[in-house]
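Tutorial handout. Part one gives the primary structure; part two gives the three-dimensional structure as tokens.
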Amino acid sequence: MSTVPMAALALLCAAAALGPAGAALRYRPDWASLDARPLPAWFDRAKVGVFVHWGVFSVPAWGSEWFWWHWRGEHRADYESFVRSRFPPGTAYTDFAPLFTAHDFQPRAWARLFQRAGARYVVLTTKHHEGFTNWGSSVSWNWNSVDTGPHRDLVGELGQALRESNIRYGLYHSLLEWFHPLYLADKESGFKTQNFVLKKTMPELYDLVLKYKPDLIWSDGDWDAPESYWNSTSFLAWLYNDSPVKDTVVVNDRWCSNCSCHHGGYYNCADKYKPGTLPAHKWEMCSSIDKLSWGYRSNMNIAELMDETSIIEELVQTVSFGGNYLLNVGPTKEGVIVPIFQERLLALGRWLDTNGEAIYETKPWRVQMENSTSTVWYTSKGPVVYAIFLLWPRDNVLELSSPAPSPDTQVTMLGFAGTLKWQKSPAEGLLITLPCMPASPQSGWALKLEGVK
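Part two.
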């Protein structure tokens, strides 16, 4: 339950401003300097991650992970009716915490599942907007997973298991807490006071970095207040200059109002963001298997879930446009990743077992997709071009108009032995004869094109 004492926090903030021995640091606490930091190479190479939304909201498991907000907001009547039907009279949101047991949480089993899904990194919610921390934050009173509920350090246990499996570890952290008295008081002041930031947000961020040494910090809850309130740039300057992960850590773009898609290590821009064209900045598309929620819902039905085809299509389109794909699951309050989520993750992993060469460590090609269709997408790796087609042509002949063939052109299909026959198309592209394949519900096959321009 260690955290950064206030005196130590003051020293860290001073270090962020002055640097060792009072010297100027490489990265200053301003966006112009911070945005100039090169993104650590591992992130772009990784391409595929798993997001995990887990917290006290997993107890009611209804509506979404914004349960508490809606219960106290415009949907109050619906949520009060739900609570009355499921829980004892007088139940408050805080009463859910002891029921967040994590009895069946097996971090090594999670790590094996994520590894089989093809994930190169995993991002866990350390604290959502409800304020409950999945580690023993000493500034959270008893609103944390060590002092109540699981009585376990969920952040630490999963981190250890992931690193044993050589999976990078990311920590989601909400800057704000909806109903924390200090935050509400700061908000009432027009964010002229910073008691919540100094006594809660920043001590927790420093604690997470020093204790767990994350590979990635996925910040959220930024939208209410400007950087002058959050002190985000001071924290990031320390993170990049003096922290134990200064050379490897990656951060997103949610650090203050009007920050998304403008500042940060890589851009999320918005939940389920799809740019449509090739962005100039590294980005990540976060999506959820449950299309209606990030947290677990006990009443979800199959029509509300992404199927294997839609997951693969999102992955391919995202990577073709230079993004990373972060696919979310919401475990139950007991710590179970339900079988339908496991099935979807394992299906993605099987596809990547065959086609991962066209995804991992690739770069966008000069053309991202065929102009005439959105069913063929391109990636590249050095001189090699990969054409990933999402629909199998009825006549087993695939036309690609974008690659220009040469006498040295060679075409193979990942997962299929031997080379494929091709000829120049009337449009100076390629007509590729595909192998006869049995009918399959699979979506997405990758051709490896060598010797094309």
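Part three, for discussion. The CA atoms of residues 134 and 145 lie 5 Å apart. The first helix runs from residue 6 to 18.
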